[in-house]
Amino acid sequence: MNLSLSRFFESTPATNLDTCDREPVHMIGMIQKGTGLLVLDPADGRIVGVSENLHEILGKPADALLGAGIGVLSEDIAEQLAELADSPHISHEILDAQFEADGAIYDVVTHAHAGRRFVEFIRNEAPSASLVRKRMRRCGSACSQIMGALTFEEAMQVAANAVRDLTGMSRVKVYRFLPDWSGATIAESRDDRMVPMLGMHFPDTDIPKQVRELMTIVPYRFVGSVQDENVPIRALAGQAGELDMTWSMGRAVSVMHTAYLRNIGASSSFSCSLMDKGKLWGLIACHHVEEAIVPSDSWALAQEIGTALMLRYDQAQRTETADMISQLRRIESNFAAELRQTGDVEDVIKTLVPVLQKFLRADGFAFQYGLNLHTSGETPPPEFIRDLIRWTKDNLTGEDQFQTISLQSIYPDSVPYKDVACGVLVQPIVVHRVCQLIWFRGPITQKVAWAGRPDAKMVADEKTGVTLGPRTSFDKWVNEHNDQSLPWEEAELQAAREIFQEFLDIISSQLLLKEENSSLRRFAHMAAHDLKAPLRGISSALQWMEEDEADPASVEEHRHLAAQQAKKLQRLTESLLELAVLQEQKPKMVTVDLGELAQQAVELLGHDIAAAGADVQIGGLPSCVAAPDLLIRVFLNQIGNALKYGRSADRALRIAVTSEEDGSWHRILIEDNGPGIPPQYAEQIFEPSQRLVTDDKAEGSGFGLSICAEIAKLHLGRIYADKTFEAGARFVLELPKAQPQ
Questions:
Q1: How far apart are CA 163 and CA 273, in angstroms?
Q2: Which candidate, 155, 452, 519, 699, has a CA 20 to 30 Å from the CA of 418?
Q3: φ, ψ for residue 307 (rounded to 5)?
Q4: Cβ atoms within 10 A of the Cβ of 256, count?
């Protein structure tokens, strides 16, 4: 768990933060009016920091407290703090002590954090013990009603009403974050002094990134006044240091936030985070028309109501997900029966794909297995789908699936396909090989009611003169747009994860068997076809030698021909064997320097390079996890092909091996300034025994590029000819930066 907001700033690049996101709100060094603060050094119990108003609460001047032990204030508090000294958890403990000053009662709340013990004095405007018990009874009743609610909407309303009753606030909202971190009020309880905001949307900038992060760390927060009457903290020289006040409840508030609250018509506020599966889902936001501090004994009660609400949400999601999974199992059973009956996996897939499309209310669906791509409904072209799959691999960021409702806003290459691929859900599933299931949704026209214009410009606060981010108007503003699809519901996302893996395992097994059988037939046909020619040549030469045995010159000529054909036969059989072995091989992967491998290949080809008068340049190549004995074969083949086929009478041959980074991929570029490869043959040349040059003087079996392709596959990468390169030939070898276990 991230226990300090400082971790957020340490781990988040400044370039990812807007102006409002960069404010270190936890290092503000002041407290709110209506609170007081003591800072202790836990090692020796000395007071190393005090708020300058503490004499008003304790009746002791700051100078008398600084450097003293907590016992000078209260032996009872000192004993209670000693009992908490060994607690490993950061939590707010309400001590069994109260102080009275000018008719106000102050509770004592403490926590330990960042090497300091914080003792806070929080004004309690309703300190009655009977009232506390009454609040606890109401909280328990509300939690029971929430869990027993027929719908989640009903549960949210119960929670909003209960928190307003508990806190006495004028308006309580259940606020949910949307995927882009904008938010919406989805339940509300209020009195007539506050304007309604139910159904209103708010931009993501209203709650900056670091504040959202803070909400995941500390579950609640109050603002007692929006008038910025903050109190400085005085520190013992060289002792208190810069205070990390992440967990301080009385911590002063950013002037940007108080201005926002004033603009929205609130004089004080309280909020409680709503967490779902460890992630920030939303918050219960309370606003009041008067200055008020929610009593410390109510913080945990509000959190308990929020926890009950999220348990009810989880219950609703589980029920909806279970219903969808049940439907999936029925579909799976039907298709498994059909597969057993027909035995034709391709026909079953063709029937299955549109069913999976409709199951998640998608406009289109694609199923990729190996090189096969099956689609249904409205989808982008296959080339884009394959590019999208590669792009999402780089953008999963530790998640097990990728989903968005506005692909074009984060992937510019998708803009031409916005009408069919605005919303995208990509679910990889490992069954023998990695399958990809991709659902597509087109954009829908939506009317969104915003609380004020979300793009309102920054304004200057009249009171402080400081430039602020909050908007001044929250009047209803309706915007119509069509740049988002329907959202992917939690049950749909979970169904995509659960999508019958066992059945897909059966399908993929049969596809793999079919693919292997087809590959075996092609291999056998290819071997039989390619071996015939040299065997026929050897047979003919031997026959001619028998006929011309009296002529030594003719016999020698035919013997030479037979030797050539035998050599060709040897090359073919070696290549066939190498290709067959590669397809079954599980190479040992180690960290290798690709630059060193390329240089070794150049040294091995030194004679050929000199004979061709070629200039071979090796650029800075990365290190990666690979099988070095296989990758050097790729460099030998690619540079060797450039030497054989790249020569030209009118220019010196230049060969360059360079690299570039592409997300999670290393891209190795091998290019020459030769005649190049016609685009129509860019894929054909990787088929076994395919050669664009049929001149027997150019040695080779026609299997070199096929072997390179197999080696790339073994590394979970690929190799291809760049059709766009016009200055010769360029081959691209793509290797993953990290090999999966």
A1: 13
A2: 452
A3: -65, -40
A4: 20
